[in-house]
């Protein structure tokens, strides 16, 4: 039992139970009967030593609440933690915004924002520090440890959550020509009320001297050593800028001739190793960068590439630092369906056929491929089913092998130019073009140069959007934020700056969908759930298009709007996969014809693309919501990385516990159908995870793998990200399951556990 309390100033006073009772009662106020503050107080009072500090007492109360694993207890812990953090950072008096910013500028951690003293006085009226008291513990902890400005070397902290949100808001509104202070308030409210979710680069860099805001980077190479070297340099530099990398390394295959046949090509492994080393040379938050490289089923080295991460592959043939993404199209899918072989081809021998894989019209490739098979009946062949099953098996065995339908990526899109790949997390689908040399990267862009694709991200937390009017406002501010970040970002290459500002690529995704569906008592694997996804997907995209059109009337259309089909009347209803119609019993509800006519008359919109559904793993923790469009794995999870560990609890999990549908209870085929409905209303793609229980005698057979593969193809899902397995008693390929002590049925390779991923997206 505690007898003495050591105060912050070092003085010692007798323990007063009334004070700790007051803490508990205050922290539990308005949270209802599901929290028992007296038990928390009793536990803390009886488990601590006779003499302890006031901070130890508060942390004991917080720890007890976290251990209860419920949303209400997380909220109680959050209130206690908020009070403790404020005391730790500011003592008895919280600074004004102006005072804090002046201090941060003086120590070199912020730049001077262009606001007068009178502006600061008005903005001070906007900030509501009491909103911290509505946050769950893990929200505050995530903002504190990952996003708040700090001197990590000296372990000096400065910002509590509301200061973080206000810093971002002021930086974004700083150059608004009209109603600047109103924009500050609007951005601040969107962030702090958790309707608009910024990505990690915006959290950490807005208002500071660091101004890299792009989350994702995609590049391709040509089949020449100067172009391959340029690709490695892109991976090196963009990793240093905290971007995740998606690469399409186009080069000839093992045994192909070099210099007229005087040298034989070594194949792709040496180039993958070089790219791996380039992205690993620089660190992101103390860890090496991350890359997914994209290849197709037609590659002569397809079987070698599939096995590069597998621990059973000889070490000399492994490249384990890269994730891999297997590409297919209708020709492959039909061969899988029919149990047929496909013919492989090298870019060296068949450059026209290779390029046709990414043609706008799939029939262009189909005809050239038929001609190739007729010309070269003895070309190397392989079973299409063997390749498809092999790719999915690698997903199971390594956890880091994905799928993409490059035909659908190039068909259902407003872009006119070829899309070769997605990004690290498989939700971005944008054109890339190879650079001929490293030197071109440092020149101003011209038509002979290549193109690196970038995407600036944002998320709308749909569970916190009250009505259509609010959705419209959040969508507008999301695209305003992205527009600012594209124009104000630092670009390591002059050429990249030119193309990024010309494209104006945006990716605004849906977050908190599982929470919203639980509120509405809807399931992912029902027609009612898919009908709701159709309505929400349309609403989301409608407001993004309207917002981009509005912004185009403020600042003009994207300079490369002519490289898209928007001015010619494109909208997602023109190109979506018609098989989706059989999944729902509803149709479009908005006036797309009228809006499209307005866009054509305007000459386009302000952005080339608008929508991408990302995982949102890290930022949704700060927002206290559920990941992206995913179902939850459980109502409580332990989430860790190399520097941070916290207990995440699904919002409103006590009252909605029976309404949340677990990911493990949704068959992969049904999950793909749900994604397909959202893909109808998405101009880029989705980080589309799948889940499968593999416990007891359960297995995943070849027939199931093929059926799931064909389901993805049939309904037009562009990309598939993780395929998560639940094995044993609570063990999965990921590290987010609660029971880490149970023995798994299948021993998982070490390579699948807790590997680095880019700091822009994930925890």
Counted beta strands? 25
Give the overall pLDDT as a whole number: 93
Summed up, the helix count is: 29
Task: Please mark out the parts with pLDDT under 50 across 5 or more consecutive residues, or reply none.
Answer: 729-763
Radius of gyration, CA atoms, in whole angstroms? 27 Å
Structure description:
The protein is an alpha/beta fold. Mean pLDDT is 93; it is low at 729-763.
Q: What labels would you give this structure?
A:
three-stranded mixed sheet; alpha/beta; single chain; globular; 29 helices; 763 residues; nine-stranded mixed sheet
List the helices and strands and how they pair.
Blueprint: E1 4-6, E2 12-14, H1 17-28, H2 37-47, E3 51-53, H3 54-67, H4 71-90, H5 97-106, H6 117-124, H7 137-147, E4 150-151, E5 156-157, H8 161-173, H9 180-192, E6 196-197, H10 200-205, E7 216-220, H11 225-240, E8 244-248, E9 257-258, E10 263-264, H12 269-280, E11 283-284, E12 287-288, E13 291-296, H13 302-306, E14 323-328, H14 330-338, E15 341-343, H15 351-356, H16 362-375, E16 381-383, H17 384-398, E17 401-405, H18 406-411, H19 438-441, E18 453-461, H20 468-488, H21 494-503, E19 506-511, H22 513-519, H23 527-555, H24 572-575, H25 592-602, H26 617-623, E20 636-640, E21 645-649, H27 653-656, H28 668-680, E22 690-694, H29 702-714, E23 719-720, E24 723-727, E25 731-732
Parallel strand pairs: 1-3, 7-8, 8-13, 13-14, 14-17, 18-19, 22-24
Antiparallel strand pairs: 1-2, 4-5, 6-18, 7-18, 9-10, 11-12, 15-16, 17-23, 20-21, 24-25
Helix pairs in contact: 1-2, 1-4, 2-3, 3-4, 4-7, 7-26, 8-9, 11-12, 14-17, 14-29, 17-29, 20-23, 23-25, 23-28, 28-29
């Amino acid at each position: 039992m505690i007898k003495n309390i050591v105060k912050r100033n070092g003085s010692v006073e007798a323990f007063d139970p009334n004070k700790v009772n007051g803490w508990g009662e205050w922290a539990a106020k308005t949270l209802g009967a599901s929290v028992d503050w007296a038990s928390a107080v009793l536990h803390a009072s009886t488990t601590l030593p006779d003499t302890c500090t006031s901070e130890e007492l508060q942390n004991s109360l917080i720890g007890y609440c976290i251990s209860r694993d419920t949303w209400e207890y997380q909220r109680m812990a959050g209130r206690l933690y908020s009070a403790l953090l404020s005391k730790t950072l500011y003592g008895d008096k919280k600074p004004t915004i102006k005072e804090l910013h002046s201090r941060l500028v003086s120590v070199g951690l912020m730049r001077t924002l262009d606001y007068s003293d009178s502006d600061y006085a008005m903005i001070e009226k906007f900030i509501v520090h009491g909103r911290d008291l509505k946050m769950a513990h893990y929200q505050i902890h995530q903002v504190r440890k990952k996003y708040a400005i700090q001197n990590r070397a000296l372990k000096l902290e400065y910002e509590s959550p509301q200061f973080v949100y206000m810093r971002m808001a002021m930086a974004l509104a700083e150059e608004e020509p009209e109603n600047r202070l109103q924009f500050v308030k609007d951005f601040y409210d969107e962030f702090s009320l958790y309707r608009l979710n910024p990505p990690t680069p915006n959290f950490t860099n807005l208002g500071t001297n660091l101004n890299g805001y792009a989350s994702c980077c995609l590049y391709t190479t040509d089949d020449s050593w100067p172009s391959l070297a340029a690709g490695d340099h892109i991976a090196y530099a963009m990793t240093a800028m905290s971007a995740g990398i998606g690469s399409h390394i186009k080069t000839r295959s093992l045994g192909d001739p070099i210099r007229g046949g005087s040298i034989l090509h070594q194949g792709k492994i040496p180039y993958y190793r070089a790219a791996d080393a380039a992205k690993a040379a620089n660190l992101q938050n103390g860890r090496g960068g991350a890359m997914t490289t994209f290849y197709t089923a037609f590659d002569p080295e397809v079987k070698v590439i599939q096995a590069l991460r597998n621990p059973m592959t000889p070490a000399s043939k492994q490249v384990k630092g890269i994730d891999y993404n297997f590409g297919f199209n209708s020709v492959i899918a039909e061969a899988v369906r029919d149990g047929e072989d496909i013919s492989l081809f090298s870019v060296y021998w068949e450059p026209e056929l290779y390029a046709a894989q990414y043609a706008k019209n799939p029939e262009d490739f189909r005809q050239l491929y038929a001609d190739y098979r007729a010309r070269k009946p003895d070309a190397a062949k392989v079973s299409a089913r063997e390749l498809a099953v092999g790719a999915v098996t690698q997903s199971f065995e390594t956890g880091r092998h994905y799928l993409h339908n490059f035909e659908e990526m190039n068909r259902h899109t407003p872009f006119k130019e070829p899309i070769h790949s997605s990004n690290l997390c498989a939700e971005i689908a944008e054109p890339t073009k190879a650079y001929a040399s490293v030197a071109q990267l440092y020149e101003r862009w011209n038509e002979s140069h290549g193109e690196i694709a970038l995407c600036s991200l944002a998320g709308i937390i749909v569970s916190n959007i009250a009505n259509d009017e609010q959705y419209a406002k959040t969508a507008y501010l999301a695209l305003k934020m992205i527009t600012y970040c594209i124009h104000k970002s630092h670009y390591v290459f002059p050429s990249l700056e030119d193309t990024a500002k010309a494209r104006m690529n945006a990716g605004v995704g849906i977050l908190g969908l599982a929470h919203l569906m639980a509120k509405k008592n809807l399931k992912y694997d029902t027609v009612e759930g898919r009908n709701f996804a159709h309505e929400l997907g349309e609403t989301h995209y409608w407001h993004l298009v309207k917002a981009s059109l509005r912004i185009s009337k403020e600042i003009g259309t994207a300079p490369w709007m002519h490289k898209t089909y928007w001015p010619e009347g494109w909208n997602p209803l023109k190109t979506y996969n018609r098989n989706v119609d059989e999944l729902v019993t509803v149709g479009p509800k908005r006036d797309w014809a009228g809006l499209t006519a307005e866009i054509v008359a305007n000459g386009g919109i302000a952005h080339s693309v608008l929508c991408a559904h990302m995982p949102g793993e890290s930022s949704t923790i700060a927002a206290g919501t559920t990941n992206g469009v995913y179902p939850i794995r459980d109502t409580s999870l332990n989430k860790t990385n190399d520097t941070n560990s916290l207990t995440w609890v699904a919002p409103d999990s006590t009252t909605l516990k029976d309404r949340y549908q677990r990911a493990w209870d949704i068959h992969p085929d049904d999950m793909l159908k749900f994604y397909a409905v959202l893909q109808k209303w998405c101009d880029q793609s989705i980080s589309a995870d799948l889940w499968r229980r593999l416990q007891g005698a359960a297995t995943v057979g070849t027939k199931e793998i093929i059926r799931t593969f064909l389901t993805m193809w049939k309904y037009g899902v562009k990309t598939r990200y993780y395929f998560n397995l639940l094995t044993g008693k609570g063990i999965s390929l990921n590290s987010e399951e609660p029971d880490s002590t149970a023995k798994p049925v299948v021993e998982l390779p070490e390579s699948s556990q807790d590997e680095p991923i880019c700091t822009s997206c994930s925890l």
